[in-house]
Amino acid sequence: MRFYGIPSEDRVLEIVNGINSGEWVFEDVKGGNREILDASSVKERLKKIIGEVKSWKEQLTTLAKGTVFVFVHEPEDPKAFKIYDTSSLGCSTELTPPRWRVYIKELEGKV
Question: 24 is in which domain, residue-wise?
């Protein structure tokens, strides 16, 4: 699956608002939690996380405003998101796993 980085949290919110149906899997990779949510609940959860990302960009003065934390599969028809946190920043030879994975249930095992 190809994911596209979205540097603007406002654009991410537009994409999230396009979610209208389906059963969604919400995984907190760091916390080891996994939930099944309906479209309304997943929208609210994603909005909360986007607020957290905005907060990081405001509070961490060394963080570039265009830093990408949110990646989405097919922005015009969102079915999967990978969201990284500030621990993903820095020099590394490999990308750390995302902090959160959110995807429509039909994609289970593919994200």
Answer: 3-107
pTM of the predicted model as reported, rounded to 2 decimal places:
0.91
Residue pLDDT tens, the chain, 111 long:
899 999 999 999 999 999 999 999 999 999 999 999 999 999 999 999 999 999 999 998 888 878 999 999 999 999 999 999 988 876 655 667 899 999 999 999 898
The number of distinct structural domains making up the chain is 1
> Across the beta sheet with 33-38, what order do the strands follow?
4-6, 70-73, 80-83, 100-104, 23-28, 33-38
